[in-house]
């Protein structure tokens, strides 16, 4: 039977691992915040609008390139033209900005209309 040394399961101490571990523990909440912000951005209406525009532009470009090739035009030139046009359309969407946020109407806390206020001299 072989004998061997079985040390501690997890070492604790002041080495490079301890140093880097403490740095990573400090950065973890910041990374989590960034990921949550990224998820919210991806789900935003602006990104959906931009994605739909890119999809439509891609479909249109593919169709136009196929038509140009069938007409005998050079594939590379046709693709370059469609790429420039796609850039312009996507840039227009980006310049349009994000979708405006829908604001909720504020509820009136105190209604001071004359109908509601009745003064009685006997009270």
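-> sequence recovered:
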């Amino acid at each position: 039977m072989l004998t061997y040394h079985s040390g501690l399961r997890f070492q604790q101490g002041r080495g490079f691992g301890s140093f880097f571990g403490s740095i990573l523990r400090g950065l973890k909440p910041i990374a989590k915040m960034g990921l949550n912000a990224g998820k919210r951005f991806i789900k935003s209406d602006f990104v959906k609008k931009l994605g739909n525009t890119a999809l439509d532009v891609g479909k249109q470009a593919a169709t136009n390139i196929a038509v140009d090739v069938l007409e005998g035009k050079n594939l590379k030139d046709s693709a370059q033209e469609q790429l420039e046009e796609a850039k312009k359309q996507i840039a227009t969407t980006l310049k349009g900005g994000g979708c405006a946020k829908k604001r909720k109407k504020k509820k009136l806390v105190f209604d001071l209309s004359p109908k509601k206020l009745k003064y009685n001299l006997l009270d």
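The mean pLDDT is 81.
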